[in-house]
Design a protein that fits this description.
The chain has about 160 residues and is α+β, with helices and mostly antiparallel strands. Helices cover about 35% and strands about 15% of the residues.
């Protein structure tokens, strides 16, 4: 039997069933430790963060700073900022990752697949021609080809260069 070594998954496996105090999204935005939490961009009302349990390389979450469970609970300026950040993050990924397409989705409620149903967030997942291969189909395994640290450095390096 072949083994796929994925040591980064141990954090996920050992945390299943354990309740973190408070909301994970509220906790990381308050921490102000962007590199540790893989926050790539902050705006007035939202932030973009790498998903630490990605569906695909470059999987980002676009999250409002304020804890709300539904898009309808956002103020107009928060909703606009969230959408502007989604577009800016997509452009950053286009520049650095050269994806062929994107899945963009919002799961509202646990029944819809939301892992964190009480804090609305948008998934932005880069896709490439051929990124669905035999591994997920026959091996129930998804191969992520780049570490979060390397991707974070690549994305934030681009942002810093643009600011100059």
């Amino acid at each position: 039997m072949d083994k796929l070594w994925a040591p980064w998954r141990i954090n996920y496996v050992t945390k299943i069933g354990k309740k973190a105090k408070g909301c994970v999204f509220c906790n990381i935005v308050k921490e102000k430790k962007d590199k540790k939490n893989f926050i790539v961009t902050r705006t007035k009302y939202a932030y973009a963060v790498l998903n630490i349990y990605p569906y695909n390389n470059g999987h980002m979450l676009i999250i409002p700073n304020r804890h709300v469970s539904d898009l309808g609970d956002l103020r107009k300026e928060e909703r606009g900022d969230l959408m502007d950040l989604l577009e800016a993050t997509k452009k950053l990924l286009e520049k650095k990752m050269n994806a062929d397409g994107y899945n963009i989705g919002i799961n509202l409620g646990r029944a819809a697949g939301a892992g964190f149903p009480k804090h609305v967030h948008i998934h932005l997942v880069p896709r490439w021609e051929g990124d669905v291969n035999f591994m997920p189909v026959t091996g129930q395994t998804k191969v992520i080809s780049q570490s979060l640290q390397a991707l974070y450095e690549n994305l934030t390096k681009t942002k810093k260069a643009r600011k100059k």
